[in-house]
Amino acid sequence: MVHLKYKPVPQELAQGITLLQHINKNNAALQYIELKVIKMTSGSKFQESLGKQEVCIVALTGKIKVTDGEQTFKTIGTRKNVFEKIPTDSVYISIEQMFDITAITEATVILCYSPSDKKKTTTLIKASDNTIERRGKYQNKRLVHNILPDTSPIADRLLVVEVFTDGGNWSSYPPHKHDQDNLPLESKLEETYYHEMNPRQGFVFQRVYTDDRLLDETMAIENGDVVVVPKGYHPVGVPDGYDSYYLNVMAGPTRKWQFHNDPDHEWILNRE
Q1: How far is it, in rounded angstroms, from Cα 230 to Cα 29?
Q2: Isomerase: is it a keyword of this entry (predicted)?
């Protein structure tokens, strides 16, 4: 069975730094994505050297300083809680770089990695650079902050996006997939979902399934969980009374988001 749901397992990395999640090819069915979620106390510092990986550092909550030794971005981050529903700042760093993150306040940071062999430029992705979309209608409404969309030339492989879904709505819906290297019809992209709920004790349901149903898992997802989508359709249902946030990381052989809707459910798009 493919393991898809990961609960946070706090691990102290250094004084003031707690690793909440670490998803990688050694513990998940992924080739193109690695993910770390870290909690930092004010004044703590996280340092890392990149090999043949690029990284997008998302200031999920709180304020941080990021430097690659040549460029320094001071006091980035815009919110205390993701459910303020405002975009945040991120930093893209390319391969074979060293970087430091210093927490200016208590902060939660998500590190999104993908293998790469292209040298790109360290770039601050300001909150104001995020494109904002409102997708869907009826009970399929969600708010989207595009941090690293496929139209951005900043990254080599990474795509990063935030999605907010109000209670009683469905997201990543109708069910769609992107697991075939068959452009222009469909691209092959792995995906991870980092989930938060408001209020925190809430839950959502996420199903991951393939056409042949050899993979077909429906999971109750709680605050801080990560869901891995190596292939298949992957809709999210949000119960009434609770709002959903998730951060998506996608990566694959080609940096293009071209999805394919489940033909059994595509009809809902054509309702009047």
Answers
A1: 6
A2: yes
Separation of alpha carbons 56 and 235, rounded Å: 25
**For residue range 133-164, what is the model confidence (pLDDT) as tens digits?**
999 999 999 999 999 999 999 999 999 999 99
Give residue-wise pLDDT tens across range 93-110. Answer: 999 999 999 999 999 999
Tokens found for residue 143 = 């708010």
Q: The domain 5-270 belongs to what CATH superfamily?
A: Jelly Rolls (2.60.120.10)
Helices in 6-134 by DSSP H: which ranges?
A: none
Stated pTM of the model: 0.97
CB atoms within 10 A of CB 117: 10
Of 256, 260, 32, 33, the residue nearest 151 (C-alpha): 256
Closest CA to 162 of 258, 244, 78: 244
Indicate the domain borders of the chain. 5-270
Residue that has been written with the tokens 């990560």 in this structure = 226
Neighbours of 201 (CB within 10 A): 9
Q: Is the dihedral of CA 237, 240, 241, 243 positive or negative?
A: positive
**β-strands 190-198, 243-251 pairing:** antiparallel
Rg value, the chain, Cα: 18
3-state secondary structure of 196: strand
